[in-house]
From TrEMBL:
It comes from Mycena metata. Residues 1-34 are annotated as: Disordered. InterPro entries: Kinase-like_dom_sf (IPR011009), Prot_kinase_dom (IPR000719). This is Kinase-like domain-containing protein. Keywords: Kinase, Transferase. Gene3D superfamilies: Transferase(Phosphotransferase) domain 1 (1.10.510.10). One of its GO terms (molecular function) is protein kinase activity. Residues 60-310 form the Protein kinase domain. SUPFAM superfamilies: Protein kinase-like (PK-like). The keyword Transferase applies. Residues 21-30 have a biased composition (Acidic residues). SMART domains: S_TKc. CDD domains: PKc.
Length: 323
């Protein structure tokens, strides 16, 4: 029986987000730096496109629907002088994100402001356009609209509002459902690499769910789409830094294999979070964590190996044992 415990005891600490402005020298350019828009200025423009930014009244309604139905005292004090229709940014979000609603049907949305010429906007537009948008391998967060404001060199990515709480309040999921979630993570990686896109920030914190069995990648601030054969990235920084980048003083020789390493770490962290230590799954990650990136499998090879592995694991209906 393979030793299924070793990766959980040796996972590197998960550092905080570095943001796009700390990638390489190209990310120092304004086009790929983080946008901090004055949201009230774009309120009318977004309304014309059918989207409404959250107001004080929206926040109050959220609290009224909570378990105790009461609006917290700190919120009332903070917004004591505000009108109900004043904008109400979520203090837990960075300045480039804002919650809102699609006016046609009440769908809750997340809006992200980016530079019009940013790599992130180009990647999102590519992944969210037909035929890629409709490809079943594509597990990018559903994008409802892309609003461009050319005079300000800014764009708004309008996404469905999913949850970063990967395990629902109702409790843990079965092993079969856990495998289904992991497969979506692997499949989207294979899909991106097929189209010469490296995500470059694969981690649990960049994974969301709609609690309907769907999981999606977010945060393409560091992502790159490669047209040629030269793919090295100098001064590479990300959430999960592979060993070759540390050995090369931050240079990333193969972004695609860096994604593979980060995906292995995501899988092991997900196992720990969900309470599953499956020896077959641990074995799957071993080659993904090879120190030499050239020795790591491709995303498509990982997906194929995963699909062959799942039928060999018994009792997919079982629940995790946290004891």
């Amino acid at each position: 029986m393979p030793d299924a415990s070793w990766p959980f005891d040796n996972l590197p600490p998960s550092p905080g987000s570095t943001g796009s402005d700390s990638d390489d020298s190209l990310d120092e350019d304004e086009a790929n730096s983080r946008v901090r828009p004055h949201w009230p200025h774009y309120r009318a423009t977004l309304k014309l496109h059918g989207f409404r930014l959250d107001t004080v009244e929206d926040a109050k309604a959220f609290y009224r629907c909570s378990a105790d139905g009461r609006i917290p005292e700190f919120f009332l004090l903070k917004h004591a002088g505000d009108a109900d229709d004043d904008l109400c940014p979520d203090p837990g979000l960075p300045d480039n994100l804002f919650r809102g609603t699609r006016t046609s049907d009440g769908t809750k949305i997340m809006l992200k402001a980016v530079h019009l010429q940013s790599r992130e906007f180009a990647v999102i537009r590519f992944l969210s356009s037909p035929p890629l948008r409709d490809d079943p391998m594509n597990h990018c967060i559903p994008v409802l609209d892309l609003v461009e404001v050319e005079e300000d060199n800014i764009a708004f990515i309008i996404m469905e509002q999913w949850s970063s709480q990967l395990i629902a309040d109702e409790g843990p999921c079965t092993l079969g459902l856990f495998f289904a979630a992991l497969r979506q993570c692997i499949e989207h990686g294979a899909f991106m690499h097929k189209h010469r896109i490296a995500h470059l920030d694969i981690s649990l914190r960049n994974l969301l769910t709609d609690y309907q069995g769907h999981y999606a990648y977010i945060d393409y601030e560091l992502s790159r789409r490669f047209d040629g054969s030269y793919i090295r990235i100098p001064s590479f920084r990300t959430t999960e830094v592979p060993p070759e980048c540390e050995a090369l003083n931050g240079e990333c020789p193969d972004p695609f294999k860096a994604d593979v390493w980060a995906l292995a770490v995501l899988i092991l962290r997900a196992c720990k979070l969900a309470g599953y230590c499956v020896s077959e799954l641990v074995e799957l990650t071993r080659p993904m964590l090879k120190e030499n990136p050239a020795d790591r499998p491709t995303m498509q090879e990982i997906l194929t190996a995963f699909d062959k592995m799942v039928p060999t694991v018994g009792n997919l209906d079982r629940l995790p044992d946290f004891h």
